[in-house]
Amino acid sequence: MREISVPASYELGPQENLTDVIVDNAMRRPNLTVLSRPGSGGWEEINSTRFLAEVSAVAKGLVASGVQPGERIALLSKTRYEWTLFDFAIWFAGAVTVPIYETSSAEQVRWILSDSAAVAVIVETSVHEAMVTGLKPDLPSLQKILTMDGGAVADLGSAGTTVDDAQLEQRRRQLTADSVATLIYTSGTTGRPKGCELTHGNFLGLARSATSLFPELVNEEASTLLFLPLAHVFARYVQILSLVAGSTLAHSPTVTNLLSDLASFKPTYLLAVPRVFEKIYNSAEAKAQAGGKGAIFTRAAETAVAYSRAQDDGGPGLSLKLKHALFDRLVYSKLRAATGGKLNGSVSGGAPLGSRLGHFFRGIGMPVLEGWGLTETTAPATVNTLTANKIGTVGRPLPGTAIRLSPDDELQVKGIGVLCGYHNNPGDAQALEDGWFSTGDLGSIDDDGFVSITGRKKEILITSGGKNVVPAVLEDHLRAHPLISQCIVVGDQKPFIGCLITLDAEMLPTWLSNHGKQALTVEQAAADPEVKAELQKAVDTANAQVSKAESIRKFEVLPTDFTEASGHLTPKMSLKRTVVMKDFATQVESLYS
Q1: Angle 41-221-312 (CA atoms, 0-180°, nearest 5)?
Q2: Residue 401: helix, strand or coil by DSSP?
Q3: Going by C-beta distance under 8 Å and a sequence separation of 6 or more, which residues neighbour residue 526?
Q4: How far is the C-alpha of 280 from the C-alpha of 274, rounded, in Å?
Q5: How far is CA 199 from CA 18, 67, 228, 269, 422, in A?
């Protein structure tokens, strides 16, 4: 199949905007709990009436401080309740939100504030405030810096008492479905980040699409814990989806406290990137090995995968059912309990999850549904569902979305989620042709309309022998190993494929202990023969997925990691290949010397 289009399942009026969601919730279901935030006695519930009042108060403060319709206001903070509060308040004031990762460097912040011509920036901490204050002389448009931890919510609430309800209503009613809601800057794996202009209609239409696709997951009885950065389009979409559906939304600022937050909040669905699910699996395996139950976990994992695969092939037999029931008591129930015990399903995006993990989680009763999309498509363009889940694919197009393949198999998207343009970049209009957005991802569409991603168009390596190699296939399998943090497959115009590997500093001590080895630093472990032998096994497993000509012949273990702080990863953990290749050119060349 070369093209598939799914009809819209939602209605979207031309005058609708995202502020209508908050107003409608308060009118139609005033006592519905729509948000939950950490309090002194646990999670504090916030109903739709209270949330509308808090949003309105902050929005009035923005209006009183001089914010004009259409002006840009930046948000620089970890994921927390105030992020969502300010996001909607900015829209109520008729303005446009510009999210910035709280881990961004000063230069990245300066670029985004300058390019967007933001008139104000709302930061989380005094450290952020100091950084932006230092940049202010280079930012003529920037007038105000507000600090969440410095009382910005209360200060705006006090300032807004001079603005009446009619003024605020007039502001929000100026917005339409075609109004730009946000400028989300791409992560910038190559060149300067570009501001994607996403509209109120982009988010509303896609959120309503998902409520029709996931009635079992996304409803008024559901809840989710959001821990992805809200500067990322995926998290931003989930925030809006939750409020559209009337689900309860809570925030967890870091993955450090994620397990305890999951256990106390007990969400019914989750949205995450594959690395989170890899960590859950690897941590469970390492814990089992440390407790002398590694063999049990291995058999339990194999049974879960087999049980899931059998669901696609006539169903499991009696013997498999009995083994599955045994391991459910011994292993699976404990894994479910660790996430709160109420998960009905999760959605994974941002990178390939891998078939084995997909089958494992479905097999233990925690199905992870893969989806695919980009910032330019307002996050999801395709997704698997609980009733139509083909593991190994990223699902079918959402209602109101069409997917097609270009002559060279690049995936192109058209529909409700596609951006209206790039801010200050009219020259990038070639990415949009007759409404079709060229994603840069290579893929295929099967006869049932399920989409698979095979790699990035710009990341294909061509060996000196003329063999085309897609790095993602090998890299995704390698990163699933508990010892491996990051990796980069190399070999463009070289005689064979090689790889640079970094070690996972968090998992390394557990692995060493489980294998009866003394503690080693990452630098020491990178040169350790047993560690290298274990990594060779991981390479062999990855090589089994490709032909001999595409397989990794040599690899080197680096004594350091690729991180966002080192400049080798974007905030959404995508590899900056050009930077890595430049900084580690010597190590790459040593593979071929």
Answers
A1: 120
A2: strand
A3: 503, 557, 558, 559
A4: 10
A5: 9, 19, 21, 26, 12
Distance between CA atoms of residues 200 and 204, nearest Å: 6
Rounded Cα distance, 163 and 175, in Å: 19
- Rounded to whole angstroms, the Cα distance separating 478 from 551 reads 12
Residues 545/473, Cβ–Cβ less than 8 Å: yes
473 in helix, strand or coil?
Answer: helix
- SS3 letters across 30-89: CCCEEEEEEECCEEEEEEHHHHHHHHHHHHHHHHHCCCCCCCEEEEECCCCHHHHHHHHH
Please answer whether residues 259 and 233 qualify as being in contact, where contact means their C-beta atoms are separated by less than 8 angstroms: no
Q: How do the pLDDT tens digits run along the chain, 593 residues long?
A: 999 999 998 889 999 999 999 999 999 999 999 999 998 889 999 999 999 999 999 999 999 999 999 999 999 999 999 999 999 999 999 999 999 999 888 998 999 999 999 999 999 999 999 999 999 999 999 999 999 999 999 999 999 999 999 999 999 999 999 999 999 998 655 567 889 999 999 999 999 999 989 999 999 999 999 998 999 999 999 999 999 999 999 999 877 788 889 999 999 999 988 888 888 898 899 889 889 999 999 999 999 999 999 999 999 999 999 999 999 999 999 999 988 999 999 999 877 888 899 999 999 999 999 999 999 999 999 999 999 999 999 999 999 999 999 999 999 999 999 999 999 986 565 567 888 999 989 999 999 999 999 888 878 888 877 777 888 889 888 988 999 999 999 998 888 999 999 999 999 999 999 988 999 999 999 999 999 999 999 999 999 888 888 899 999 999 999 988 888 987 767 788 888 999 999 999 999 98
467's tokens: 């063999």
Residue 237 one-letter amino acid: Y
What tokens were used for 318?
């009696």
* Tokens standing for residue 150: 């410095």
- Which amino acid would we find at residue 355? S
Measure Cα distances from 5 to 60, 409, 447, 467 in Å: 42, 17, 13, 34
The phi and psi torsions of 453 (rounded to 5 degrees) equal -100, 130
Q: Is 502 exposed, middle or buried, given 0-12, 13-18 or 19+ CB atoms closer than 10 A?
A: buried
Whether residue 230 contacts residue 83, with contact meaning beta carbons closer than 8 Å, is answered with yes
Burial annotation 529-555 (CB, 10 A radius, 16+ → b, else e): eebbebbeebbeebbeebeeebbbbeb
CA distance linking residue 225 with residue 319, whole number of Å: 37
Assign 3-class secondary structure to 182-198. EEEECCCCCCCCCEEEE
Provide Rg for the chain, Cα atoms: 24
How far apart are alpha carbons 299 and 301 in whole angstroms? 5
For residue 570, give the nearest of 374, 419, 418 by alpha carbon.
Answer: 374
Residue 254 identity:
T
- Amino acid 352 reads P
CA distance 486 to 572: 13
Contact 377, 392 (CB under 8 A): no
**What residue ranges in 296-450 does DSSP mark as E strands?**
345-348, 368-374, 379-383, 396-397, 401-405, 410-415, 421-422, 432-433, 436-445
Q: Which two tokens stand for residue 330?
A: 């011994």
